[in-house]
Amino acid sequence: MYKALYRQYRPEVFEEVLGQDHIVRILKNQIATDSTSHAYLFCGTRGTGKTTTARLLAKGLNCLSDGERPCGVCANCQAIKDGNFLDVIEIDAASNNGVDNVRELRESVKYPPSAGRRKVYIIDEVHMLSTEAFNALLKTLEEPPEYVTFILATTEVHKLPATVLSRCMRLDFKRVPESVLIKGMADICAKIGIDVTEDALRIIAANADGSVRDGLSILDQCISGRDMKVDAEEVLEFLGASGYEDFIELTDMVRKKRTEEAIAFLNGILSDGKDVRQFMRDWISHYRNLMMVKFMRNPETVVSMSAENIERMRRQAAVLELEDINRGIMELSTMANEARWSTQPRILLELAIVRLCMGAGQIRELTEVEFTEPEPVPAPAKKASPAKAPEAAVKKAEEPALVKVEEPAPVKAEEPVIETQVKPEAAESAPVEPAPVESALAEMQNGFDCEDIWNKVFEDGENEKGSINIIRNSARLKSIEDRTFTVEANNTFFKDLAEKNRQFIEHLVEKHTGAHRRMNIKLANSNEERSAEEIAAEASDILGIKVEVK
Ligand SMILES: Nc1ncnc2c1ncn2[C@@H]1O[C@H](COP(=O)(O)OP(=O)(O)O)[C@@H](O)[C@H]1O
Ligand SMILES: [Mg+2]
Ligand SMILES: [Zn+2]
Hints:
The protein is an alpha/beta fold.
């Protein structure tokens, strides 16, 4: 019968225990000097070696060797390994949690060891004991017979009563560092005859999150059913994680502000059944690795990647500013955090992509940075849209945005310096007025500065209703008429979002224009992304606003 790797392989001697040197040192010393405690409490995350170490201690206490104990080979060590040594009693508190079980235990404690030197009780998952059972156990812990050693193990030490804690020597098992895990798994593989690449081990270690058992379990599932070979591809396939290539590509699309392409690419990846939350975490790691690669001479030490992959990362890192990397990390971390509570993590990821493509992480900084719409498909449409070229110009001139907001409107009216054929460079060299021509014209209308008002609306709105802020960047105030004002939205999602917030926006516009006006909402671009409906539906969920797409 096939036996899982983590069952098949268990350290037989202390030297084989990974990443718990601080504990191994203490126990080895106590065994050697016959100064072991009567009761131990092993705490720590699952799969870090608590049960393993408990058995090693039990062996050490009963080992027949004159040398290093446990030896792992004497009759007693072997019997304990096979689970048929009478004086080592393992109790799984999860399934034996009643007071009767503990009474039984107390009964059995009365009898001295029959075969070994010491009677060892290993109580696993001890936090599962009922209160009465704890109380019964406590009595035994208080006055254990001379020949008894208790080893309690738990993943949830905070659930134990202080009375138990105070009677045990507590040892905390740590998550095993990746480098130790890699080395350890490589040794295990060599022993068992598994041919595994270093890349594969790195990925496994990164995903085991400090648990040796989880690491072995991943490894196991990558080999079972196949030959005894494991490479990175197989591991990634099993984990459902994306390869570096995907992240390099996606990050590149975001850098080039190709929103539509990036979303489509994401769709492709996710339709393969990849987990959205895992994807977010992996993408964050990618950005983190880019940062390491960008600033470290020898990133190998902190970036768990092959030299080849690091070289590819280096090329990407070279074309990214630290600010871009930082923004990527911040944006995705925020979304990943929110995604934990969301039933629709995917929309958050899509929003993160949209925001990253917009080119700045904080809405406030985005006052005039345009939502980067995908290039309209029919070429003439682009030429026909007068707004398009100036918008592009504005995109490049990110910095002056805030300056402008603070300026009083009359000063601006005096500076309609921007020509119709404004170029990006021109906008850059005129930081005081980076506004597109259209809005410069619009501000003459009725004496209002549309952009200024739009920003003010959202500065107010931000305080009252943070979520509507995403409208600011994806729609703009085009004109203010006597009884109406016109808002142009980038797509139906934002159009609908504006519609849903009509009262709110109208109210704020009134506040800043001095009269009540009705909002007209237009679509800026008829080349609506097909996925808008889906996005809108999902967005309703997240934003808590009902969004309908007509
Ligand atoms: N520190 C470790 N060193 C080596 N192997 C380990 C370690 N921790 C766990 N393992 C592996 O995982 C399996 C389960 O470990 P176990 O000791 O039962 O973990 P825990 O009791 O902490 O949940 C072991 O059989 C072994 O293969
Ligand atoms: Mg255990
Ligand atoms: Zn032995």
